[in-house]
Amino acid sequence: MATNWPENVGIRAIEVLFPSQYVDQTELEQFDGASAGKYTIGLGQAKMGFCSDREDVNSLCLTVVSRLLERHHIKHTEIGRLEVGTETIVDKSKSVKSVLMQLFADSGNTDIEGIDTTNACYGGTAALFNAINWIESSSWDGRYALAVCADIAVYAKGAARPTGGAGAVAMLVGPNAPLVFERGLRATHMEHAYDFYKPDLSSEYPTVDGKLSIQCYLSALDTCYRLYRQKFEKQQAKTQSGKVGLDNFDAILFHTPFCKLVQKSVGRLSFNDFLLTSEGKRAEQFAGLERFNNATLEGTYFDRDVEKAFLTQSADVFEAKTKKTLLLANQVGNMYTPSVYSGLVSLLIGVPAADLVGKRIGVFSYGSGLAASMYSISVTQDAAAFEKFVAQLDYVLPLLNSREKVAPEQFSELMEVREKNNHAAPYTPTGSVGVLFPGTYYLKDVDSLHRRTYERTPTISNGVH
């Protein structure tokens, strides 16, 4: 029997979660004895959200999933697939997804596919792709899929600590979506690298080769972008859209370890466009940059002249297409798997909905080790539906502005508590429950068999904020 292919599959709802406490990066510079501007200007970070020992990856996911279902009035029985992308492992065997099944117990819905997906910051994208693929496959039973990304990014004292953060994003996936994943426009690059990894299972802290990590990120960006361009140009031969390269995108999102890297990444894409432009057209489109005609991708990862020149060349593109996607990254820090999707939320709340209707959003997702993809999202032409979709995010800015600032000294003490009690059992957390946002799940205790139990702070009247 013939079946219809689901149309316009993509994100129908999105929920973002970030910690209720933060440390100011200017104050952290002073506390750490770092030079003024090292974190704020050098990294491009203003504030860093963090979790006390009251929150773990399970509690973050419980909170973000319950809020999405409540806010959008989705019945638990309407979910047929749920997959979690995370690198914050609290159990080597039991998935976070299985913990989330507590939310579905009362509905009797145990028929939900999906488990956890792990590869550094890329796991959330893999979960999202799997959700899209399920909807578009013969396995689909007509219900929605949920892709959940959550992580707590913490580092030992030192230069890497200010690049931490935490958060979660849940995305409801289905047909007839306001944000549609463009078929055939997905490019992936994967290879083996030890740029950032977590071999010590007793610690939350990663092992990081900072220089190699930047090189891996940029080389993966180069490869994914070129593959995406090839696929787009092949499709364009049929559509005759006429746009290539950065002109193809109306907005561009990036995984954001720190904001300054994203600005450099826009410049990197401009450099790729330069190299892919015929010499005859370069003089017209890239005036004054002829001295880089013989430059190569491989030889320029740390070339300051190339970086500076193409940062300048792409400044208008960054300002118009990427800067507003960095709000949450700047204010919360690196969320790991949710990072690039916090950029999507930042774009949706930072640009008038009418300006995004019918536009194309480019997305670059990266996870160390390494895995990366570039793909594109098409915003619906239905202005009313998109306005309604964006309006559901009206809680983000008030929540962001209601956070509690914590002094660096207290932040450091709370990080020491996390470090000392990582995987401790039995254990009763000591972090304040009172500072958590309404409706937040938190860790109540861990028993002698490492079994974790959770409770939820009271919700306010509408049950979701």
From TrEMBL:
Pfam families: HMG_CoA_synt_C, HMG_CoA_synt_N. Keywords: Lipid biosynthesis, Lipid metabolism, Steroid biosynthesis, Steroid metabolism, Sterol biosynthesis, Sterol metabolism, Transferase. It is an enzyme of class 2 (transferase). Residues 5-178 form the Hydroxymethylglutaryl-coenzyme A synthase N-terminal domain. InterPro entries: HMG_CoA_synt_AS, HMG_CoA_synt_C_dom, HMG_CoA_synth_N, HMG_CoA_synthase_euk, Thiolase-like. The keyword Transferase applies. The active site is at E87, C121, H255. SUPFAM superfamilies: Thiolase-like. PROSITE patterns: HMG_COA_SYNTHASE. It catalyses: acetoacetyl-CoA + acetyl-CoA + H2O = (3S)-3-hydroxy-3-methylglutaryl-CoA + CoA + H(+). The keyword DNA-binding does not apply. Its EC number is 2.3.3.10. Residues 179-456 form the Hydroxymethylglutaryl-coenzyme A synthase C-terminal domain. This enzyme condenses acetyl-CoA with acetoacetyl-CoA to form HMG-CoA, which is the substrate for HMG-CoA reductase. Catalyzes the condensation of acetyl-CoA with acetoacetyl-CoA to form HMG-CoA. Belongs to the thiolase-like superfamily. HMG-CoA synthase family. PANTHER family: 3-HYDROXY-3-METHYLGLUTARYL COENZYME A SYNTHASE, HYDROXYMETHYLGLUTARYL-COA SYNTHASE. This is Hydroxymethylglutaryl-CoA synthase. It comes from Drosophila persimilis (Fruit fly). The lineage of its organism: Eukaryota, Metazoa, Ecdysozoa, Arthropoda, Hexapoda. The gene is Dper\GL10732.
